[in-house]
């Protein structure tokens, strides 16, 4: 509703883009990042195609070299 009243409002576009990001709808967030003046975010999220967080291509398994509170992979 906020964008219907003021389509050029940067804050409304920023918050709507953030809502789309939290729903993993990256491509839908891109035009709102553009309208909010965040061109780099708009390009970044417009480049996401298909389902997010999917790994394609070659994969590898690496052994842990050390176990501590934070694992270290060398």
Topology:
Elements (H helix, E strand, L loop, with lengths): L1 H4 L4 H13 L3 H10 L3 H8 L28
> How many β-strands, per DSSP?
0
Are there runs of 5+ residues with pLDDT below 50, and where?
Answer: none
Structural class: mainly alpha
Q: Which range does the strand content fall in?
A: under 5%
Helices and strands, in order, run as: HHHH
Rg, Cα atoms, Å: 18 Å
User: Tell me, what's the shape?
Assistant: elongated
Number of helices: 4
Q: Please outline the major beta sheet.
A: none
- What level of helicity do the residues show? 40-55%
Distance between the termini: 51 Å
**Overall pLDDT, averaged?**
85
What distinguishing features does this structure have?
74 residues; mainly alpha; 4 helices; 47% helix
